[in-house]
Specification:
The structure is a homodimer of 199-residue chains.
Chain A: E1 4-9, H1 15-26, E2 29-31, H2 33-43, H3 47-53, H4 74-92, E3 95-98, H5 102-105, E4 112-118, H6 121-130, H7 139-158, E5 170-173, H8 178-198
Parallel strand pairs in A: 1-3, 1-4, 2-3, 4-5
Helix pairs in contact in A: 1-8, 2-3, 2-4, 6-7
């Protein structure tokens, strides 16, 4: 059975780089923007169009991911396409998937380990400023806005609470250190694989 | 500076045994029921009386832990006594403290690493049945009741949300394994101590 690591993350917590390093360390495929491209390609939309319309909340709950495309709002269609891309990725091989409610999309997949990365707002503001090269007038307000959007999208699509510990196997304050975070997830993956093989 | 590990835990998640093993592995003091005894002793109450009246929500928020005892409801007085005992423990040496909102009581302590242990309800029901030797008619309902009490006490006393990842440095699903959980926290402690020494 394939092992899938899903990473949800607060904006500026370093979740994406943690996912990337983890994938490298484990020799797994890494999916992030690539997923959007795959989804966009399948739907005949441009990548930019998908990027603008994904992770936008609509007011019709998707109870069936396999509804016929064309009958739903664009952001729901994109969610369906991305969900299908996530399932395909999970079937192909071991991988790390960042964002896009992958924990929820794969919730019935027994080889799935779900991670949430967070950090105090001050540390995230520093990271966004230093590493992402972003300099909004009030960077903390900007971060909170991005998080609010992610949370509201996740809560709406999954009917769960973004950032609630019980949704994930491991939640880590990445201010403990990026290396430590990667190492801890790696240790969890090894133990998790042992457990799966025993069952 | 002393290192203090606080452990909050869902009922039946094994948080207490994880705390105990961690304390042994690190050579730290372990505080759990002992804290109640210390608090009870100081207040002249019997241990049983404290146990019955602690972690019970009252409808007056304690804005000052150092209010004069005798003027507050018993459960608030016990919270104050326990908070003082927690601060004393943190001043004496490295330690692991389970429960009693220790993460909140020590929130301004720079040597504090806050952990939350949780697990799926089915696994907790199994643990409560097998290891705690408890067999309520409907064990899952019983577990949910205990958790509800813990959450409501924590939320009331701290004005934070129990089980919300951002309150803690590390949240672990203990179904990954008790040993792994202990090892991961230990790795986090080592990294955390390096970080403190650098500052």
């Amino acid at each position: 059975m394939n092992t899938i690591i899903t990473i949800a993350r607060e904006y500026g917590s370093g979740g994406r780089i943690i996912g990337q390093r983890l994938a490298e360390a484990l020799g797994y495929e890494f999916f992030d923007r690539k997923l959007i491209e795959m989804a966009a390609e399948k739907m005949g939309f441009s990548e930019e169009y998908v990027r603008e319309n994904e992770e936008v909340k609509n007011f019709s709950f998707i109870s069936n991911f396999y509804s016929i495309p064309g009958e739903l709002p664009v952001s729901d269609q994109i969610f369906i396409a991305e969900s299908n891309a996530i399932r395909e990725a999970a079937e192909k091989g071991n991988c790390v998937i960042v964002g896009r409610c992958a924990d929820y999309v794969l919730k019935d997949h027994p080889g799935c380990l779900n991670i949430f990365i967070h950090a105090p707002i001050e540390d995230r503001a520093r990271r966004v400023f230093e590493e992402y090269d972003e300099d909004a007038p009030n960077i903390q307000v900007h971060i909170q806005k991005v998080d609010k959007k992610r949370a509201s999208y996740y809560n709406y699509m999954t009917q769960q609470k973004w950032g609630q510990a019980e949704n994930y196997d491991l939640c880590i304050n990445s201010s403990l250190g990026i290396d430590l975070t990667v190492n801890m997830i790696r240790a969890a993956v090894e133990e998790f694989q042992k457990k799966i093989q025993e069952e």
